[in-house]
Amino acid sequence: MTVTSRTFRSGNSDAVRLPKEISFGPGVEVEIERKGDVVTISPKRKSVKEMLAKLRSLPKPSSIGVREEVEIPDRSGL
C-alpha cells in the first residue's frame, strides 16, 4: 500500500505523520534506516536477550507429558 504524507518541523527535527492506513499504533518503537533516497521504517525487533527474558516469564506447566515413540517406516531409495 502506498500513501502520501508531508514532512514538517518538530523542534529541531524533521517529522512525518504516518496516516492511519499504515500506522503501527501508539507507543511502538521503530527503527529507521536510510539508503540513499529511500527511508524504511519498521517496528523494532526485540533482541535475543529480550526474547529469552519474555519466554522465561511465561508460566511453567504443572506437569510435563511424555510422547509416545513414533515408528519411522523404512523407505528405500531416499
Automatic annotation (TrEMBL):
InterPro entries for this protein: SpoVT-AbrB_dom, SpoVT-AbrB_sf
Protein keywords: DNA-binding
Chain ranges passing through the membrane: none
Keyword ATP-binding: no
Any matching Pfam family: MazE_antitoxin
Domain (SpoVT-AbrB) ranges: 8-49
GO molecular function, one term: DNA binding
Keyword set includes Lipid metabolism: no
Protein name: AbrB/MazE/SpoVT family DNA-binding domain-containing protein
Organism of derivation: Brevundimonas nasdae
